[in-house]
Predict the 3D structure of the following.
Amino acid sequence: MCGITGVWAFNEVGRIQINNLDKATGCLAHRGPDHHAIWNDHLVGLGHRRLSIIDTSADGHQPMQIMDGRYVMVFNGEIFNYRQLRQDLQSKGIQFHSESDTEVIMHLYAQEGKACLQKLNGFFALAIYDTSEQSLFIARDRLGIKPLLYFQDEFKLLFGSEMSAILAYGLDYKIDNEALHYYLQLNYTPAPLTMIKGVKKLMPGECLEIKGKQVTKSNYYELQSHPSPSNLSYEDAKRKLAQLMEESVQKRMVADVPLGTFLSGGIDSSVITSIAARHTNQLSTFSIGFEGNSFFDETHYAELVAKKCKTHHTAFKLSNEEILSHMPAFVDHIDEPFADSSALLVYILSKKTREHVTVALSGDGADEIFSGYNKHAAWLKMESKGSLNKLMSLARPVAELMPQSRSGKLSNRMRQVIRYDQARQLKPKSRYWFLASLASQEYADNMMRDSFAGSDMREQWMQDLDGYRDINDLLYMDTQFVLPNDMLKKVDLMSMASGLEVRVPFLDHEVVEFVHSLPVEYKINAQMRKKILQDTYRDILPKELYRRSKKGFEMPLLNWLKTSLSSELSATLFDRDKIEAGKIFNWSAVEKLKTKMYSGNPEDSHAHVWALYIFQKWQEKHF
């Protein structure tokens, strides 16, 4: 796991940017604290920051060269089947000079070109320069676990693992109003957009081939939206899932450094931990909780799993003061505005976990592929012809008279009743966007001083819901849209801020493809979400996990914004002079949002306030 960046110059003017290569590489120091180096050859430059995981010796350093310097590569990620690939190459007479997966990829590319990507099982962002052909090949992994951003104009193409590396080249940059418009609705910026105009995200399963002034973008992988359905019985499907998960976890335990797991006490992380514990008696597990706040603290469940799996467990119990003390560093590591508030907890958990291990396995991805979210259960009910829909319509007027927020059981239930009744009246594409969003398009229009009047990219993003069939289409959309833009972005950004590698066994592409082929009823019914996952591991997990309701990785945001962070908000977001000087947001809309948050019925105002606050801090740093 590392940080990469590079320059491809189309002419001598673009070549000037190679002078900034070392600076750009330095911006990624947190991603790779163990080694750094740059390489350049007139019109091309590559930079690398290394976090040593496999072959920690100097032989594994990058930029790496093979075949007398013909191929040069920078690579961020891990290839979990590299040993088998290495053996296959050795049988063909290839000699290796390191034990790293990086060298395996390079020799595979030398033999097969971009087709080599089909053989890689893992996550990655990579760039390979062929000095003989004078061509550059750039690719991102199948599901978008590792990030890659790029910028192209008439003089050069720049790329990097994070926005900070791109901006270090000295671009004359400005905010993309289109991206901001969607950020205000989603609390993240959906790919290929970024908050900087002209900088794009390479999409999952995409690659770039560059030669001379020609840049060709193509897909080397796409998860099938409508795969051939599995004909396995439910029991056979459970056995197949258990086999694939066992293989996935075992592959992801290969490391030459200490390894552990994140353990929240939910089903997903508990499954990963239970499998990993079978392959080592030295497994360390880590969870995070809140002192004195039982509504948000769930470390008790994590401790039950740790005890059953006999792991070396550490629970980080945090006070409000300690959590908030991490705010400045947390905000500083946000490379573009990103307002999933649980990112702060992931940052702290990663930072504290890194004091014990260098690699952690997590349960991310299971909710998206197995149907673990409230919206999945709600969607199923919306499609039914039962009495619930009528009941929700009757309950909505009452709910609208009650306080609504995510910060309490009753207020959260009232919020859910209203959103349910609103969503069920929409068609699939509009319903999906509504459930994925925290704010409406009207809210974004009112908040922005300069309204965005460009093409509506929602049609492009939601096109896979054309001809909607069943909830498998909904899960496919989550895997394509929410997963890489929100969940994986959060985990990569916050873990790499502390130089911690996080591996996600549920997102082995073979697991994802198999689960996506299963019928809906194997995953969700009126009584249970993630049905096949829960049933497969029911006998090995504590029974208490099956009696609890699902809770996301949340924090008491509303309370913090109104108390501990109130002075900070007053000095940034709620300062009229600053807002009007920024010429981005309408003060009247900000003031209205402030009033809503401090009212007795805050609804989701705290999430909107948080998004604006994060944007303001990011803007202060870069503008």
In short: The two ends are 30 Å apart (CA to CA).
